[in-house]
Write a structure and sequence with these properties.
- The chain is mainly α and about 200 residues long.
- Helix 1 packs parallel to helix 7, helix 2 packs antiparallel against helix 8 and helix 3 runs antiparallel to helix 4.
- About 80% of the residues lie in helices and about 0% in strands.
- The termini are far apart.
Length: about 200
């Protein structure tokens, strides 16, 4: 398949899908908004890079065949949903504690924490399995196609999640008052709980 035809028939839909999935609200984006607002962009950068570092292998190995495993044993996806929802509740609890003044948020998620979360991020697995089953270029080998869609997914994901952190930074000036910051953290905590409930339903 000529490269131009491949771009028109396969890559543009993949770009669109990656943009939608990376830009819309989800666990990563809500956590990054809270991180940007509480800690600024520079301190949130390890969180951002950890998402990319975890997202890349998630896409790549799904394209190599891991997606078929989830189709064969759907219970594995259910387990990931439960673990992911539980982790979101833990993060919501920490944000809520900061909101009511029990403790302050001491630090943003580290690179390794953000990377590890991708393994149980249900939205990330939905994207990875969909890319593996729908958007793999048919004119390429499995290894080359997997590398290509992984590179595209990361290239789209990084600026999109960064925008959510920058949005948090942009509203930071509105959160100078302790009451405003506590209210914001309470809203973010509630959003994570809603996401956790949605995952379980």
């Amino acid at each position: 398949m000529p490269a131009q035809d491949l771009a028109m028939t396969e890559l543009i839909p993949l770009l669109t899908y990656s943009l939608v999935m990376s830009s819309t609200p989800g666990p990563n984006n809500i956590m990054l908004t809270a991180s940007g607002a509480n800690f600024g962009y520079r301190r949130s950068l390890p969180h951002i890079l950890g998402i990319a570092a975890g997202h890349g292998p998630q896409i790549f190995f799904s394209c190599l065949g891991l997606g078929a495993v989830f189709h064969t044993w759907p219970v594995l996806h259910q387990v990931l949903r439960i673990v992911g929802a539980a982790y979101l509740v833990v993060l919501a609890w920490k944000l809520a504690g900061s909101a009511v003044g029990h403790r302050d948020m001491e630090r943003p998620l580290s690179f390794w924490q953000a990377l590890s979360f991708q393994a149980v991020n249900p939205k990330g697995w939905v994207k990875a399995v969909t890319v593996a089953t729908v958007f793999m270029p048919p004119g390429m080998g499995v290894l080359g196609g997997s590398a290509l869609v992984t590179a595209i997914s990361i290239a789209i994901n990084l600026p999109c999640v960064s925008m959510w952190a920058l949005f948090g930074v942009a509203i930071r000036r509105l959160l100078v008052q302790p009451l405003h910051r506590k209210l914001f953290n309470a809203i973010m905590a509630s959003s994570l709980v809603v996401l956790a409930i949605a995952l379980m339903l």
